[in-house]
Write a structure and sequence with these properties.
single chain
Length: 121
């Protein structure tokens, strides 16, 4: 395979930990990340940026303070900057995230679920 080509399924197949995003590639000042999710994350915001979720496999609930947004395979949802949210996966979810380089997974919440971005490959 060409070294410039990345395969989402191949990347996800190498991942064993949940809530630990890996950079698949970058586009301008944005990272395209793959991640496996299971359980409930932490309530947090990203004060300076939107966050895009695209579900590859499974069913993801993005809890907002005023409603829940449920995503299935191939669904995309953008959490607007500054909106408090808490992703929840009752069964394992495989997803793609699109956000500016340097965005911390736990946003302004910090804590033990904060992960350093890992590289795929």
């Amino acid at each position: 395979m060409n070294e410039d080509v990345r395969n989402v399924q191949a990347a996800l197949a190498t991942m064993t930990e949940h809530w630990q995003p890996h950079r698949l590639t970058s586009v301008n000042d944005y990272d395209v990340k793959v991640v496996k999710l299971l359980g409930e994350f932490v309530w947090h915001t990203h004060p300076d940026t939107d966050e895009l979720f695209m579900v590859v496999h499974g069913r993801l609930t993005i809890q907002l303070r005023d409603r829940d947004v449920v995503l299935g395979p191939n669904d995309v949802f953008v959490v607007p900057k500054g909106v408090e949210h808490c992703p929840r996966a009752d069964e394992e979810v495989q997803a793609i995230l699109f956000e500016p380089k340097g965005t911390v997974n736990t946003g302004d919440a910090g804590g033990e679920m904060t992960s350093e971005l890992r590289e795929f490959g």
